[in-house]
């Protein structure tokens, strides 16, 4: 009998893993890391968006009237005078005539915000001693504010614009306050008016 040499069965070598980890585990780890990066980036973007789009807190408004100067909706509003008894405003042929009399409120408006803004005089109301409120005479305001810069244009941040705001009020009205607000739906701030000239 002859002895056959022993043959070694072929050996298959597993691919070498330098760190000894299974490829499936490494793949899952990569997915978790990529997911963590995506979630972190989304949180950063959301945080920046929330900071940029958060409106400023509402102003705390005093209960009673204040005198002369106030700040509402990013504007500083300074009443410098009041003139009543004006019978017409505008050039000949285009005159605006009041139902009673025009009272002209002289103001300085300063943009205290960071963006150019339009000052909306339509939301102002002037009050008499009986508590009646009167709106701005918008058509007459166009003729009174024709200087440059004007209350009718955007006011740049930090700039102050002098203007005149007309109100059509009864001849016998005793005006005593003006209400400033950002919009018609906000309560606003009441300022005491100077005595009319």
UniProtKB/TrEMBL annotation:
It comes from Actinoplanes utahensis. The chain crosses the membrane at residues 31-52. Pfam families: DUF4352. Residues 75-175 form the DUF4352 domain. Signal peptide: none annotated. Residues 1-20 are annotated as: Disordered. InterPro entries: DUF4352, Immunoprotect_excell_Ig-like. The keyword Membrane applies. This is DUF4352 domain-containing protein. The keyword Transmembrane helix applies. Keywords: Membrane, Signal, Transmembrane, Transmembrane helix.
């Amino acid at each position: 009998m002859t002895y056959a040499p022993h043959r070694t069965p072929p050996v298959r070598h597993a691919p070498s893993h330098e760190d000894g980890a299974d490829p499936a585990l490494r793949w899952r780890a990569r997915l978790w890391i990529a997911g963590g990066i995506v979630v972190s980036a989304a949180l950063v973007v959301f945080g920046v968006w929330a900071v940029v789009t958060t409106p400023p807190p509402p102003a705390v408004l005093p209960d009673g009237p204040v005198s002369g100067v106030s700040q509402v909706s990013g504007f500083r509003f300074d009443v410098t005078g009041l003139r009543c008894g004006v019978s017409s405003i505008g050039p000949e042929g285009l005159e605006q005539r009041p139902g009673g009399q025009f009272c002209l409120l002289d103001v300085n408006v300063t943009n205290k915000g960071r963006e150019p803004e339009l000052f909306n005089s339509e939301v102002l109301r002037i009050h008499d001693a009986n508590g009646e409120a009167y709106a701005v005479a918008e058509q007459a305001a166009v003729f009174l504010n024709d200087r440059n810069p004007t209350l009718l244009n955007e006011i740049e941040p930090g700039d102050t614009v002098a203007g005149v705001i007309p109100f059509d009020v009864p001849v016998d009205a005793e005006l005593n306050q003006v209400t400033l607000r950002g919009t018609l739906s906000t309560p606003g701030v009441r300022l005491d008016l100077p005595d009319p000239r």
